[in-house]
């Protein structure tokens, strides 16, 4: 569940503070989400 904060903080920062999300950050967030899904599914 802690890994979701690595996704929530940049996404909320994008919407609330209008911070930029470059392609590298988006790819990194997708990898984290994929890892969380894998862990939830196979643990």
Describe this structure as you would to a colleague.
This protein has one domain (2-42). Helices cover 84% and strands 0% of the residues. It contains 2 helices and no strands. The mean pLDDT is 91.
What's the topology here?
Layout (H helix, E strand, L loop, with lengths): L1 H16 L5 H20 L1
Question: Total number of β-strand segments?
Answer: 0
Structural domain tally: 1
Average pLDDT number: 91
Derived from helix and strand composition plus strand pairing, the structural class reads mainly alpha
Oligomer: single chain
What form results from the Cα inertia axes?
elongated
Q: Topology as H/E string? A: HH
Provide the low-confidence segments as ranges.
none
Q: How much of the sequence is in beta strands?
A: under 5%
Largest sheet: none
Helix content: over 70%
Distance between the termini: 13 Å
Radius of gyration from the alpha-carbon trace, in angstroms: 11 Å
Number of helices: 2
Key structural traits:
single chain, 43 residues, mainly alpha, 2 helices, elongated
Care to give the gist of this entry?
With 43 residues, the protein is mainly alpha-helical. The chain has one domain (2-42). The protein has helices at residues 2-17, 23-42.
